[in-house]
Amino acid sequence: MQGMMDFSAFQRLILQPKINVDYHKGDCHELTTNDHGWMVKAKEDCRTILTASYLHSKYKLAQFHAHWGHDGTYGSEHLIDGKPFSGEVHFVFWKMEYGSFDEATKYDDGLSVIAVFLQEGEYDNIAYEPIVDCVKTALITKGTVPVPHDFDFNSLLPKLHNFCTYPGSLTTPPYAECVVWTVIKTTVEVSKVQLDVFRQIAPSNVRACQEMCDRKVKASSME
């Protein structure tokens, strides 16, 4: 089962919910593209750490990437109360006690992925412009593009106080059941112009939403 869900009901509240991402400048190393999308990779000696009240260990940043659709009406891999969003960014972290990313994928809590919704709006999002610029360069050079050292990772994230979390899987092959998903309910606005740059890589790279089945969903609030 892939980790793409429609959250219409929350089964349990998280006591004292808290998420913290401690980003170290320069950890976002390079952007790569393929036929399906773009990815920003972290340095091998990355020091950016995710901690949360519902996670029982520290997780290190590995990469982040995005999903989007043909237009602004549908591009997210999670839904809230049946509503899709224009896109979705996945920030991927791995559990440090497992020693490596590859080893972490062998365990059901090996990865922690923060999903952030993108909503198409009128104005460019300045925080995402460095990524858009890197994608533009990659489209021309067909190669790896360095991310600026002063890139502000934290500005990509909305406030992290309103979220839900559940155990799931990767949304791309091999769909390993190794992910603790955190879906942030606060959206980030980006422009159609910015999303259209991503669509030059692929018109759409979003997969259909999956059934929740019997997955246990926890939420920071009932909002």
UniProtKB/TrEMBL annotation:
Name the UniProt key words of this record, in alphabetical order.
Answer: Lyase, Metal-binding, Zinc
This protein's source sits in the domain of life called: Eukaryota
Check the record and name the SUPFAM superfamilies matching this protein. Answer: Carbonic anhydrase (SSF51069)
InterPro entries, A to Z? CA_dom, CA_dom_sf, Carbonic_anhydrase_a-class, Carbonic_anhydrase_a-class_CS
For the Alpha-carbonic anhydrase domain, which residue ranges apply?
A: 1-223
User: What EC number is given for this enzyme?
Assistant: 4.2.1.1
Q: Which reaction is this enzyme known to catalyze?
A: hydrogencarbonate + H(+) = CO2 + H2O
Q: What Gene Ontology cellular-component terms does the record carry?
A: cytoplasm
The record's Gene3D superfamilies line, in alphabetical order, gives: Alpha carbonic anhydrase (3.10.200.10)
Instruction: Indicate what this protein is called per its UniProt record.
Output: Carbonic anhydrase
Q: Which organism is it from?
A: Steinernema carpocapsae
Its lineage opens with: Eukaryota, Metazoa, Ecdysozoa, Nematoda, Chromadorea
